[in-house]
Amino acid sequence: MPEALTPTPEQLRYLQLLAEKYPTIAAASSEIINLEALSRLPKGTEHFMSDLHGENEAFIHILNSASGVIREKIDVVLGQDVPAAERAELATLIYYPAQKLPELKARQTDLNGWYRKNLFWLIDLCRFVSSKHTRDHVRRCLPRYCGHIIDELLHAHFEDHDKDLYYGQIIDSIIRYDRADAYITRFCEVIKRLAVDRLHIVGDLFDRGPRPDQILDRLMLHHDVDIQWGNHDVVWMGAAAGSPICILTVLKTTVAYNNLATLENGYGISLRELDHLAEAFYADTDVAHWKPHIDPRTTPAAESIARTARMHKAVTILMLKLEAQVIRRNPDFQYQGRDYLNQIDYTAGTVRCGGNVYPLLDPVFPTVDPADPTRLNPQEQRVLDDLVCSFTESERLQRHVQFLYARGAVYKVCNRNLLFHGAVPMTEEGGFAAETFQGKSYAGKALFDYCDRRAREGYFAPEGSPERQAGQDFLWYLWCGRLSPIFGRSAMTTFERLYIADPATHAEVKNPYYRHIQHAETADRILKEFGLEGEGCHIVNGHVPVRAIEGESPVKGGGKVIVIDGGFCRAYHRQTGIAGYTLVYNSRGLTLRTHQPFESAEKAIREDEDIASRSEQIYTAPSRILVRDTDEGNEKRILIHDLEQLLAAYRAGLLREQL
Question: What is the DSSP letter of 543?
Fold first, then answer.
């Protein structure tokens, strides 16, 4: 090509680097042919989940089932000739091979016959899910030690072999040498791996549910996952960074939901000192108002509930003290007047809120000095120091939060979809709302980018630096700030709900975004702000549970906005009437999955019970979406162009082949 004959020095240096990987005309030409072939394949399947809130068992089941995709493929491959009960049994085996396999084996009178039948089924199913991938990609997904055998079973040429005889001989060898369990397990893993190419988590892994740590363990094993931070995530990120206010905020939510196992068992963080503080100051006070939410799956003793209630009050007052300090040193947050310990008349037992004065539901503050309400007493300071050490020294928490930073961001643009957790802050008139930080205003995409940078400073800026302190305060702002794109409400009314009876003070007014997003023109304006225009562009977000029980639709903005928070967490089921939405995006379009409550993994394994789900096609592509139509396809086009330049340089004698 003409420009390749007279490249600039910078272009030539780049081509020299590219030539190290493709040292000959043959190598460059072969790669171009390979990339063009890959570009003509159907796009891979993307799986979207949101607002998991620690519901580890439901998450793992939906992840294993790919929101029903695997069961659909089983039905296609096996057909109606195989009874529904056997298809359900096979699905459970694929979801939970380690747990289901021993149970199934114990029931068999002809174990070898059962092995043969199920291995045949798994081979056919694996061939089906691998059909839209290249053989090279499938090989890279195979396990190290038996991958060559699985590859042979998947890609045998049956014009040269009798299928049953050829399969049968290999399977007989697998059974004879006691490798059937291993091969069944590996096939199950490969099927799940090939069924979904990419996983998107649109925020809020933490809080309320029992084991967010187990969710993160599983995500860290996933082959391709990205995360858009939710406000419950960023406050945990701040806690791991050592932010006292974020640590106390995390603790307050954890204790309020009686979910101490997350901290004590999941992250090895002891609450003993907090317990001692609570007993020292609140043992003789009425804490009925502070009783935690109780998960119906648990039956804690009355004394355990009372102990947690005392800790709930102790940590809340500690949190309120630090909130007032953060508000004082960050006027940009525009939270003046919400430093409630400074707004209380301790003699009268009242508090000023929003220009009005209200009686306190609980006027007992034994650790608060009315002359200096935000000062920590010595025992509170010891507790806080101990907690900061525990959070920053928890190796598992640090691994999880480093993963959140590495794979996460405030938003992501991927394959013509804009993903974010909360809202694009807007004005009442429908423009992008501007927020001023450090003397400069930000709105729209610029606000998202600014928030992402500040969130990273809170963890990665040098220890003890002003940037790290300010970044940690900003992580708290992202949790609850008025124009935080991750929060999207006027205020976090924690104090009001605990201390003021008037329900009018409890309202957390949604940002105008949630009203404007009903209109297609608003969706188009937001998409354009993030560089997306034309057919097939969508916004995917979560954060605010869709009240399906009241007839609310998760699809808004003329079909361009999909809200996939349907109440995945058990605590939200009564509000939404369902147990969550997930989204599947394949080469045909977007399918919304509506899920009913999941009882337990134990029951699912024992009874071959899947999550009851309903599918709705919400976007059908005008023609089948190919790899060339995706972000990956664009990267391949760029590389093809560069390789063509490299070929031209070889042929013009500007570079020599390394034969």
Answer: S
Residue 293 to residue 389: CA distance in whole angstroms: 28
**pLDDT, tens digit, 9 for 90 and up, residues 517-558:** 999 999 999 999 999 998 899 999 988 777 777 788 889 999
At residue 58, the pLDDT reads 86
Q: What is the mean pLDDT of residues 161-188?
A: 80
Q: What is the mean pLDDT of the chain?
A: 90
Are the CB atoms for 26 and 620 separated by under 8 Å?
no
* Cα–Cα distance, 583 to 47 (Å, whole number): 6
pLDDT higher than threshold 90 for residue 400: yes
With 0-12 / 13-18 / 19 or more C-beta atoms within 10 angstroms meaning exposed / middle / buried, residue 601 is: middle
Could you count the other beta carbons within 10 Å of the beta carbon of residue 135? 11
- DSSP H helices, 7-110, are 9-21, 25-39, 56-65, 69-78, 84-95, 97-107
pLDDT in the model for residue 28:
93
- Can you point out the beta strands (E) in 444-586? 538-541, 555-556, 561-563, 581-586
d(CA 210, CA 144): 34
User: What three-state secondary structure class fits 250?
Assistant: helix
Q: Are strands 581-586 and 589-595 parallel, antiparallel or unpaired?
A: antiparallel
Instruction: Determine the distance from the C-alpha atom of residue 122 to the mean position of all C-alpha atoms in its chain, rounded to a whole number.
Output: 30
Residue closest to 145 by CA, chosen among 189, 100, 90, 105: 189
- Helical packing angle, 69-78 and 84-95, nearest 10°: 140
Rounded distance between C-alpha atoms, residue 377 and residue 375, angstroms: 6
The answer to whether the beta carbons of residues 233 and 408 sit under 8 Å apart is yes
How does DSSP classify residue 616?
A: E
Average pLDDT over residues 256-270: 91
In angstroms, rounded to a whole number, what is the distance separating the alpha carbons of residues 402 and 241?
Answer: 10
47, 219 in Cβ contact below 8 A?
no
The mean pLDDT of 420-434, rounded to a whole number, is 95
Residue 658, both tokens: 């390394």
- Could you tell me the two tokens for 279? 């007993």
Residue 539 near residue 555 (C-beta atoms within 8 A): no
Please choose, from the candidates 476, 493, 510, 508, the residue with its C-alpha nearest in 3D space to the C-alpha of residue 351.
493
DSSP letter assigned to residue 43: P
Predicted pLDDT of residue 124: 86
Phi-psi region of 360 (alpha: psi -120 to 50; beta: other; left: phi over 0): beta
